[in-house]
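Lab manual, section 2.4: Encoding a predicted structure.

Procedure: take the sequence of the chain (328 residues), apply the prediction step described in section 2.3, and record the output as C-alpha coordinates. A sample record is shown.
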Amino acid sequence: MSFISKTRRLAFGAVLGAVAIGTTLAVAQTPAFFRIGTGGTAGTYYPVGGLIANAISGTGGGVQGLVATAVASNGSVANINAISGGSSESGFSQSDVAYWAYTGTGLFEGKGKIEQLRTIATLYPETIHIVARKDSGIASVKDLKGKRVSMDEPGSGTLVDARIVLGAFGLTEKDVKAEYLKPGPAGDRLRDGALDAYFFVGGYPTGAISELATSSGITLVPITGPEADKLLKDYQFFSKDTVPAGTYKDVAETQTISVNAQWLTSAKQPDDLVYNIVKALWSEQSRAALDSGHAKGKLIRLETATNGLGVPLHPGAEKFYKEKGLLK
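Recorded output:
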Protein backbone atom coordinates (compact mmCIF):
# COMPACT_ATOMS: atom_id res chain seq x y z
CA MET A 1 0.00 0.00 0.00
CA SER A 2 1.40 3.44 -0.93
CA PHE A 3 1.84 6.17 1.61
CA ILE A 4 -0.74 8.36 -0.23
CA SER A 5 -3.46 5.69 -0.22
CA LYS A 6 -2.78 4.96 3.46
CA THR A 7 -3.02 8.66 4.25
CA ARG A 8 -6.29 8.86 2.31
CA ARG A 9 -7.68 5.87 4.21
CA LEU A 10 -6.76 7.47 7.55
CA ALA A 11 -8.26 10.77 6.46
CA PHE A 12 -11.43 9.03 5.26
CA GLY A 13 -11.63 7.16 8.57
CA ALA A 14 -11.22 10.40 10.45
CA VAL A 15 -14.04 11.96 8.44
CA LEU A 16 -16.28 8.95 9.14
CA GLY A 17 -15.37 9.17 12.81
CA ALA A 18 -16.21 12.86 12.88
CA VAL A 19 -19.53 12.22 11.14
CA ALA A 20 -20.31 9.44 13.59
CA ILE A 21 -19.42 11.63 16.57
CA GLY A 22 -21.43 14.49 15.10
CA THR A 23 -24.40 12.21 14.60
CA THR A 24 -24.14 10.95 18.17
CA LEU A 25 -24.03 14.51 19.48
CA ALA A 26 -27.00 15.46 17.33
CA VAL A 27 -29.00 12.53 18.65
CA ALA A 28 -28.02 13.33 22.23
CA GLN A 29 -29.10 16.96 21.77
CA THR A 30 -32.37 16.20 19.98
CA PRO A 31 -35.03 17.92 22.10
CA ALA A 32 -38.00 16.04 23.56
CA PHE A 33 -41.28 17.82 22.84
CA PHE A 34 -44.05 17.84 25.45
CA ARG A 35 -47.31 19.50 24.47
CA ILE A 36 -49.80 20.76 27.06
CA GLY A 37 -53.36 21.03 25.76
CA THR A 38 -55.01 24.01 27.47
CA GLY A 39 -58.17 25.89 26.42
CA GLY A 40 -59.19 29.00 24.50
CA THR A 41 -56.69 31.87 24.43
CA ALA A 42 -59.12 34.10 26.37
CA GLY A 43 -59.52 31.62 29.25
CA THR A 44 -57.38 30.68 32.26
CA TYR A 45 -55.97 27.35 31.06
CA TYR A 46 -53.97 28.89 28.20
CA PRO A 47 -51.88 31.47 30.16
CA VAL A 48 -51.37 29.03 33.05
CA GLY A 49 -50.26 26.39 30.54
CA GLY A 50 -47.76 28.85 29.11
CA LEU A 51 -46.29 29.52 32.55
CA ILE A 52 -45.92 25.81 33.28
CA ALA A 53 -44.51 25.02 29.82
CA ASN A 54 -41.83 27.67 30.28
CA ALA A 55 -41.04 26.48 33.81
CA ILE A 56 -40.49 22.83 32.86
CA SER A 57 -38.63 23.47 29.58
CA GLY A 58 -34.86 23.13 29.56
CA THR A 59 -34.49 26.72 28.37
CA GLY A 60 -36.44 27.87 31.44
CA GLY A 61 -34.23 25.97 33.87
CA GLY A 62 -36.46 22.91 33.89
CA VAL A 63 -35.85 19.48 32.39
CA GLN A 64 -32.70 19.42 30.26
CA GLY A 65 -33.49 18.83 26.59
CA LEU A 66 -37.25 19.25 27.07
CA VAL A 67 -39.25 21.69 24.96
CA ALA A 68 -42.74 22.10 26.42
CA THR A 69 -45.44 24.14 24.66
CA ALA A 70 -48.91 25.29 25.65
CA VAL A 71 -51.39 24.50 22.88
CA ALA A 72 -54.76 26.28 22.60
CA SER A 73 -57.68 23.83 22.45
CA ASN A 74 -61.39 23.40 23.10
CA GLY A 75 -60.73 22.45 26.72
CA SER A 76 -61.12 19.38 28.93
CA VAL A 77 -62.81 16.88 26.61
CA ALA A 78 -60.65 17.82 23.62
CA ASN A 79 -57.48 17.55 25.71
CA ILE A 80 -58.40 14.11 27.05
CA ASN A 81 -59.22 12.87 23.56
CA ALA A 82 -55.88 14.24 22.28
CA ILE A 83 -53.98 12.43 25.06
CA SER A 84 -55.89 9.22 24.37
CA GLY A 85 -55.29 9.49 20.63
CA GLY A 86 -51.59 10.31 20.99
CA SER A 87 -51.77 13.77 19.40
CA SER A 88 -50.80 15.46 22.69
CA GLU A 89 -48.49 14.37 25.50
CA SER A 90 -50.56 16.06 28.20
CA GLY A 91 -53.40 18.48 28.85
CA PHE A 92 -55.55 20.27 31.42
CA SER A 93 -58.99 19.06 32.45
CA GLN A 94 -61.60 19.55 35.11
CA SER A 95 -61.39 16.71 37.62
CA ASP A 96 -65.00 15.70 36.99
CA VAL A 97 -64.47 15.35 33.23
CA ALA A 98 -61.26 13.39 33.87
CA TYR A 99 -63.12 11.01 36.20
CA TRP A 100 -65.88 10.46 33.64
CA ALA A 101 -63.31 9.72 30.92
CA TYR A 102 -61.38 7.26 33.10
CA THR A 103 -64.55 5.44 34.22
CA GLY A 104 -66.55 5.74 30.97
CA THR A 105 -69.39 7.60 32.72
CA GLY A 106 -70.96 11.08 32.55
CA LEU A 107 -69.89 12.83 29.35
CA PHE A 108 -68.11 9.63 28.27
CA GLU A 109 -71.08 7.31 28.84
CA GLY A 110 -71.10 4.65 26.13
CA LYS A 111 -67.74 5.77 24.70
CA GLY A 112 -65.58 3.33 26.66
CA LYS A 113 -63.11 3.93 29.45
CA ILE A 114 -59.87 5.81 28.81
CA GLU A 115 -57.90 3.63 31.18
CA GLN A 116 -54.46 4.95 30.17
CA LEU A 117 -55.30 8.40 31.60
CA ARG A 118 -53.05 9.49 34.49
CA THR A 119 -52.73 12.60 36.68
CA ILE A 120 -49.58 14.73 36.89
CA ALA A 121 -50.94 17.27 39.39
CA THR A 122 -54.05 18.94 40.73
CA LEU A 123 -53.59 22.63 39.94
CA TYR A 124 -56.32 24.87 41.38
CA PRO A 125 -60.04 24.82 42.24
CA GLU A 126 -62.73 25.65 39.70
CA THR A 127 -65.73 26.88 41.62
CA ILE A 128 -69.33 25.99 40.87
CA HIS A 129 -71.18 29.30 40.67
CA ILE A 130 -74.97 29.49 40.67
CA VAL A 131 -75.45 33.10 39.63
CA ALA A 132 -78.90 34.56 40.29
CA ARG A 133 -80.54 37.95 39.78
CA LYS A 134 -80.44 39.96 42.98
CA ASP A 135 -84.24 40.33 43.00
CA SER A 136 -84.95 36.68 42.09
CA GLY A 137 -85.69 35.53 45.64
CA ILE A 138 -83.38 32.52 45.12
CA ALA A 139 -81.52 31.85 48.37
CA SER A 140 -80.94 28.09 48.09
CA VAL A 141 -80.71 25.37 45.44
CA LYS A 142 -84.26 24.28 46.30
CA ASP A 143 -85.47 27.80 45.42
CA LEU A 144 -84.52 27.13 41.80
CA LYS A 145 -87.74 25.10 41.46
CA GLY A 146 -90.00 26.69 38.85
CA LYS A 147 -87.35 29.29 37.94
CA ARG A 148 -85.75 29.99 34.54
CA VAL A 149 -82.32 28.40 34.89
CA SER A 150 -79.54 27.94 32.31
CA MET A 151 -77.71 24.66 32.82
CA ASP A 152 -74.97 25.43 30.20
CA GLU A 153 -74.82 23.94 26.71
CA PRO A 154 -75.30 20.26 25.79
CA GLY A 155 -72.02 18.32 25.92
CA SER A 156 -70.51 20.54 28.60
CA GLY A 157 -69.15 19.36 31.94
CA THR A 158 -71.11 22.15 33.62
CA LEU A 159 -74.40 20.64 32.44
CA VAL A 160 -73.53 17.29 34.04
CA ASP A 161 -72.46 19.04 37.26
CA ALA A 162 -75.67 21.10 37.30
CA ARG A 163 -77.74 17.91 37.05
CA ILE A 164 -75.78 16.37 39.94
CA VAL A 165 -76.30 19.46 42.11
CA LEU A 166 -80.02 19.63 41.39
CA GLY A 167 -80.33 15.90 42.08
CA ALA A 168 -78.61 16.24 45.45
CA PHE A 169 -81.36 18.67 46.48
CA GLY A 170 -84.20 16.51 45.16
CA LEU A 171 -84.71 18.37 41.86
CA THR A 172 -84.41 17.49 38.18
CA GLU A 173 -84.34 19.56 35.00
CA LYS A 174 -88.12 19.11 34.80
CA ASP A 175 -88.50 20.99 38.10
CA VAL A 176 -86.91 24.10 36.62
CA LYS A 177 -87.51 25.96 33.37
CA ALA A 178 -84.25 24.75 31.91
CA GLU A 179 -82.33 26.53 29.19
CA TYR A 180 -79.04 25.41 27.67
CA LEU A 181 -76.88 28.46 27.03
CA LYS A 182 -73.18 29.23 27.19
CA PRO A 183 -72.24 31.49 30.14
CA GLY A 184 -71.97 34.64 27.97
CA PRO A 185 -75.50 34.54 26.53
CA ALA A 186 -76.83 33.32 29.90
CA GLY A 187 -75.37 36.41 31.59
CA ASP A 188 -76.94 38.64 28.92
CA ARG A 189 -80.36 37.07 29.47
CA LEU A 190 -79.97 37.41 33.25
CA ARG A 191 -79.19 41.11 32.81
CA ASP A 192 -82.23 41.54 30.56
CA GLY A 193 -84.53 39.86 33.06
CA ALA A 194 -85.21 36.88 30.77
CA LEU A 195 -83.40 34.41 33.07
CA ASP A 196 -83.41 33.93 36.83
CA ALA A 197 -80.17 32.01 37.35
CA TYR A 198 -77.39 30.11 35.57
CA PHE A 199 -74.67 27.60 36.39
CA PHE A 200 -71.03 28.40 35.70
CA VAL A 201 -67.88 26.41 36.57
CA GLY A 202 -64.61 28.34 36.76
CA GLY A 203 -62.11 30.02 39.02
CA TYR A 204 -63.19 33.19 40.80
CA PRO A 205 -63.28 36.08 40.22
CA THR A 206 -64.61 35.60 36.69
CA GLY A 207 -64.65 38.77 34.60
CA ALA A 208 -68.11 38.31 33.08
CA ILE A 209 -69.70 37.70 36.50
CA SER A 210 -67.81 40.65 38.00
CA GLU A 211 -69.20 42.89 35.25
CA LEU A 212 -72.70 41.54 35.80
CA ALA A 213 -72.45 42.15 39.55
CA THR A 214 -71.38 45.74 38.94
CA SER A 215 -73.89 46.57 36.21
CA SER A 216 -77.00 44.68 37.35
CA GLY A 217 -76.45 43.19 40.78
CA ILE A 218 -76.33 39.47 41.48
CA THR A 219 -76.41 36.95 44.27
CA LEU A 220 -74.56 33.64 44.47
CA VAL A 221 -76.65 30.66 45.54
CA PRO A 222 -74.90 28.56 48.22
CA ILE A 223 -74.40 24.80 47.78
CA THR A 224 -74.26 23.71 51.39
CA GLY A 225 -75.98 21.68 54.10
CA PRO A 226 -76.50 17.92 54.50
CA GLU A 227 -77.40 17.56 50.82
CA ALA A 228 -74.03 19.03 49.81
CA ASP A 229 -72.23 16.86 52.37
CA LYS A 230 -73.76 13.72 50.85
CA LEU A 231 -72.89 14.95 47.35
CA LEU A 232 -69.24 15.39 48.38
CA LYS A 233 -69.21 11.87 49.77
CA ASP A 234 -70.79 10.37 46.64
CA TYR A 235 -68.61 12.26 44.13
CA GLN A 236 -65.01 12.49 45.29
CA PHE A 237 -63.96 14.81 42.44
CA PHE A 238 -65.91 17.61 44.20
CA SER A 239 -64.47 19.60 47.11
CA LYS A 240 -65.84 22.19 49.53
CA ASP A 241 -65.17 25.75 48.46
CA THR A 242 -65.89 29.29 49.62
CA VAL A 243 -66.24 32.44 47.54
CA PRO A 244 -64.97 35.21 49.86
CA ALA A 245 -67.11 38.25 50.60
CA GLY A 246 -66.52 41.04 48.11
CA THR A 247 -65.17 38.76 45.38
CA TYR A 248 -68.12 40.10 43.39
CA LYS A 249 -69.63 43.52 44.17
CA ASP A 250 -72.05 43.41 47.13
CA VAL A 251 -72.02 39.59 47.27
CA ALA A 252 -71.53 38.07 50.73
CA GLU A 253 -69.30 35.09 51.50
CA THR A 254 -70.83 32.05 49.81
CA GLN A 255 -70.30 28.39 50.68
CA THR A 256 -70.23 26.23 47.57
CA ILE A 257 -68.32 23.33 46.01
CA SER A 258 -65.68 23.06 43.33
CA VAL A 259 -64.01 20.70 40.92
CA ASN A 260 -60.28 20.94 40.31
CA ALA A 261 -58.26 21.94 37.29
CA GLN A 262 -55.85 19.04 36.78
CA TRP A 263 -52.87 18.30 34.53
CA LEU A 264 -53.20 14.90 32.88
CA THR A 265 -51.03 12.64 30.74
CA SER A 266 -50.92 9.06 29.51
CA ALA A 267 -49.59 6.02 31.35
CA LYS A 268 -47.47 5.49 28.20
CA GLN A 269 -45.27 8.51 29.02
CA PRO A 270 -41.91 7.40 30.53
CA ASP A 271 -41.73 7.37 34.32
CA ASP A 272 -38.39 9.21 34.43
CA LEU A 273 -39.65 11.96 32.14
CA VAL A 274 -42.79 12.61 34.19
CA TYR A 275 -40.80 12.45 37.44
CA ASN A 276 -38.41 15.12 36.15
CA ILE A 277 -41.30 17.25 34.86
CA VAL A 278 -43.03 17.15 38.26
CA LYS A 279 -39.75 17.93 40.00
CA ALA A 280 -39.30 20.96 37.73
CA LEU A 281 -42.92 22.06 38.29
CA TRP A 282 -42.37 22.30 42.04
CA SER A 283 -38.91 23.92 41.95
CA GLU A 284 -38.24 27.29 43.61
CA GLN A 285 -37.80 28.87 40.19
CA SER A 286 -41.22 27.61 39.05
CA ARG A 287 -42.78 28.77 42.32
CA ALA A 288 -41.62 32.34 41.66
CA ALA A 289 -42.90 32.23 38.07
CA LEU A 290 -46.33 30.90 39.12
CA ASP A 291 -46.71 33.47 41.90
CA SER A 292 -45.90 36.42 39.67
CA GLY A 293 -47.29 35.23 36.35
CA HIS A 294 -51.05 34.77 36.89
CA ALA A 295 -53.65 35.16 39.66
CA LYS A 296 -54.42 31.42 39.52
CA GLY A 297 -50.69 30.61 39.65
CA LYS A 298 -50.66 31.48 43.36
CA LEU A 299 -53.22 28.72 43.97
CA ILE A 300 -51.08 26.02 42.32
CA ARG A 301 -49.48 24.54 45.43
CA LEU A 302 -47.47 21.40 46.13
CA GLU A 303 -49.51 20.69 49.26
CA THR A 304 -52.73 20.41 47.19
CA ALA A 305 -51.18 18.63 44.19
CA THR A 306 -52.72 15.27 45.11
CA ASN A 307 -56.18 16.56 46.14
CA GLY A 308 -59.39 15.31 44.53
CA LEU A 309 -57.83 12.58 42.42
CA GLY A 310 -60.49 10.83 40.35
CA VAL A 311 -57.78 9.45 38.05
CA PRO A 312 -54.63 7.62 39.30
CA LEU A 313 -51.35 9.47 39.46
CA HIS A 314 -48.74 8.70 36.82
CA PRO A 315 -46.04 6.50 38.46
CA GLY A 316 -43.40 9.18 37.85
CA ALA A 317 -45.53 11.78 39.63
CA GLU A 318 -46.44 9.35 42.40
CA LYS A 319 -42.74 8.67 43.08
CA PHE A 320 -42.06 12.40 43.50
CA TYR A 321 -45.02 13.01 45.82
CA LYS A 322 -44.06 10.04 47.96
CA GLU A 323 -40.53 11.46 48.30
CA LYS A 324 -42.08 14.76 49.41
CA GLY A 325 -44.25 13.03 52.00
CA LEU A 326 -47.57 13.88 50.36
CA LEU A 327 -48.38 10.19 49.88
CA LYS A 328 -47.69 7.13 52.01
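Check your result against the sample. The longest helix spans residues 3-28.
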